[in-house]
């Protein structure tokens, strides 16, 4: 191709189009991989729903108790500081 006939703007636009296409391909690749992973974990998600339903049906825990237990568990697992959570909670409520 004789680039003397093509302006710099066209060359830049062509490069952007190639970059955009490469990005689009990576987005599609990510979505395909994510879909595969989500399909693979769905049986486990169903088990979690069934576990929660059983504990509620048996009257062992309420929905709120389960939710709070899960939040506490995740905070402990991440070694998060409860005082920081309380500070943020109070800040969002407008308290000091």
What does this structure look like?
The relative contact order is 0.04. The chain folds into two domains: 1-60; 61-96, no CATH class. The mean pLDDT is 87. It has 96 residues and is mainly α. The longest helix has 50 residues, at 8-57. It is built from three helices and no strands. Helices cover 79% and strands 0% of the residues. The protein is flat and about 70 Å long.
* Arithmetic mean of pLDDT: 87
State the end-to-end distance: 68 Å
Main sheet summary: none
How much β-strand is present in the residues?
under 5%
Helix count, per DSSP?
A: 3
Name the helix and strand elements from N-terminus to C-terminus, one letter apiece: HHH
* Overall form: flat
Any low-confidence stretches, pLDDT <50, length ≥5?
none
- Number of beta-strand segments: 0
Number of domains: 2
Note the topology.
Layout (H helix, E strand, L loop, with lengths): L7 H50 L5 H15 L4 H11 L4
Short description:
The protein is an all-alpha fold and 96 residues long.
Q: What keywords describe this structure?
A:
96 residues, mainly alpha, 2 domains, 79% helix, flat
């Amino acid at each position: 191709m004789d680039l003397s006939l093509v302006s710099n703007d066209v060359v830049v636009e062509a490069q952007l189009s190639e970059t955009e296409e490469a990005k689009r391909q990576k987005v599609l690749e990510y979505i395909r991989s994510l879909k595969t992973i989500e399909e693979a974990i769905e049986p486990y998600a169903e088990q979690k729903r069934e576990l929660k339903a059983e504990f509620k049906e048996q009257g062992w825990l309420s929905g709120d108790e389960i939710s709070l237990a899960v939040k506490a568990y995740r905070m402990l697992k991440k070694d998060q500081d409860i005082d920081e959570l309380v500070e943020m909670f109070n800040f969002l409520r407008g308290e000091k």
